[in-house]
C-alpha cells in the first residue's frame, strides 16, 4: 500500500485524495444524522400514539363507571 501511495503523483495525493475523503465523510455524516433523526422522529410519534391510547383508555374507564 505504501508503494502504491508513493507511486501516485503529488497533485493526486495533495488535492484529489483529500477532496474525495471530505466528500465521503460529508455523506457518511449526513447518513448518520438522517438515521438518528429518523429514529428520534419514530420515537416521538410512538410516544404520541401511546399517550393518545392511554387517554382513550382512561376516558373509556371513566365512562364505564358512570
Taking the alpha carbons of the first and last residues, their distance comes to: 79 Å
Helix content: over 70%
**Order of helical and strand elements:** HH
Average per-residue pLDDT, rounded, comes to 95
DSSP strand count = 0
Percentage of residues in strands: under 5%
Could you write a compact summary of the structure shown?
The chain has helices at about 1-5, 10-65. The chain is mainly alpha-helical.
Describe how the helices and strands are arranged.
Blueprint: H1 2-7, H2 10-65
Q: Can you tag this structure with a few keywords?
A:
membrane; mainly alpha; 94% helix; Uncharacterised_SCO3924; transmembrane; 66 residues; single chain
Write up this protein.
The model has no long low-confidence stretch (mean pLDDT 95). The protein is mainly α. The longest helix is centred in the middle third of the chain and has 56 residues, at 10-65. It contains two helices and no strands. It has helices at residues 2-7, 10-65. Helix content is 94%, strand content 0%. It has one domain. Keywords: Membrane, Transmembrane, Transmembrane helix. The chain crosses the membrane at residues 12-33, 39-60. InterPro entries: Uncharacterised_SCO3924.
